[in-house]
Known about the structure:
Elements lengths: L3 H15 L1 E3 H8 L3 H13 L3 E4 L2 E4 L8 H4 L4 H13 L6 E4 L3 H10 L3 E7 L2 H7 L3 E6 L3 E3 L4 E3 L1 H7 L4 E7 L10 E2 L2 H12 L1 E7 L11 E2 L8 E4 L5 H7 L4 E4 L1
Amino acid sequence: MLLMEERRELILEELMKEGAVHVSKLAEKYSVTYETVRKDLTYLENKGLLVKSHGGATLKQNAIEHSFQVREKENAQYKKMIAQKALEIIPDNSSIIIGTGSTTLELAQLLASKSGYKIFTDSIPVASLLIKSKNQVFLFGGELRERSSSVFGGWTVSQINQIQVDLCFLGTDGFSNLDGPTSPSSSDVFVDQAIINHSEKRYILGDYTKFERKSLYKICDWSEITALITNKEAEESALNKLSASTKIITC
């Protein structure tokens, strides 16, 4: 049997990968009681690493910004579903800005097999993925930012200011009890705000766990967003509350 410290480390690793964990599944996986798992989650919550919820817990973001490589592994299957739904609403031959983020990267993966689009991005992974596609692809210039694998700064924004696209797709770190999507980086927010201002339609891509997470900086008000694309697994009460502020597309 695993030592308590080892089990808690494994629970945290799973939480960072999946974004959420469930007491019943953890108890079965580690052959311990529900009460033992709850004590583990309470310990990790007191360390500021998660937020306990009914029957489980979600990863706590707040001021902690995980690397792009870590975020890319969180809730992968749900992000793929969101990306597929986003692809369905993109008209043929349209112009698009794809912002930095792991869910937006999933959308880029789908667009890589398409053709005829003009795609702009501040994300280095998105640009790398699309470089061999049959789309016209533009990577904004600027200072490199390791945490989000993107570019930022005045140079980046000046290039965004020179274009006007049909649609943009942006990621978010969460929006729990807030009046807009958030990001842990003020420099990323500065770029996202410019993207929003130069897009006819604006979409936020965020999996269902983002309803229980938030970060330091608000990107914009929900009134500035055309729609949020998220999973139907989000709690109905949260969906109903947010639907008063913006359109929600579920998958």
